[in-house]
Amino acid sequence: MSSNENVTNHARPSTGEPKVSWANVPTRTVLVDGTDFAYRTYGPDRGVPVVFLHHLTANLDNWDPRVIDGIAAHHRVVAFDNRGVGASGGTTPDTIEAMAADAIAFIDAMGLEKVDLLGFSMGGFIAQVILELRPELVGKVILAGTGPAGGVGIDKVTRVSYTDSIKAVLTGKDPKQNLFFTRTENGKARSREFIARLKERTENRDDAVSVKVFRTQLRAIHTWALQTPADLSTITHPVLVANGDDDRMVPTSNSHDLARRLPNATLRIYPDAGHGGIFQEHRQFVSTALEFLAG
């Protein structure tokens, strides 16, 4: 680890205490170009670590414990708050390219010479730019609930996010219940389970994301949506593309588009699932992801 790291939660499991999990793993900071970035890492200290890249408005506590614990059972995982998000310092960038540059700088500051990436939603945009900027840094990539630059319907994210967030406030729900899950009885039930899992960590939780950060990230996503599509044929890395069959935020057609345009891609679509399909069907997804990463 970098000599610039600090531990902000000094709890350490010892004999008789629960094993390290997403519910209790310490939050640390590492200095990245003069700015403290908050992160959490755990799992076997061997092999290629998996760096998690997060979605719109997300802090560390928004990762589904079943997904991240499932991957951490076999791989070292590293998740961090983007610049200006949660407990990380600095100002939130207003472009995906700047977020990708920050992610690369964070990975370098952590002393990681090779990583696999798991990018969800906006994190999937960031992962694609990392592949363009530093292809040699990356082994394998998982792109979930995401799409390419200029992807169909991504420019509607702002409207969908505002509309569903307002509905959530009026109905006493978390916005992710509407944004990430289908409105079928199955989707509603899985959404409630997901929100309950996000609350399993009860101590040393991350800082809430501000409205200013929300708006800045929306601008970055909107710009991504209007960009000229990149030439994805140059990305030869193994890629797992995953999504639900009814994604309202980044329409599922974008997942099919990624799988067609990436030369070495595998596609997994989960039925009766939305943008958060990897969370709704976490058991299937973790199993598939582990097989992909091991292969």
From TrEMBL:
Residue span, AB hydrolase-1 domain: 49-280
Compositional bias per record (Polar residues), positions renumbered to this chain: 1-12
Keyword match Oxidoreductase: yes
MF GO annotations: peroxidase activity
InterPro entries per record: AB_hydrolase_1, AB_hydrolase_fold, AB_hydrolase_sf
Alphabetical UniProt keywords: Oxidoreductase, Peroxidase
Region (Disordered): 1-20
Pfam families, per database record: Abhydrolase_1
Claim: Coiled coil is one of the keywords in the record: no
Name recorded for this polypeptide: Peroxidase
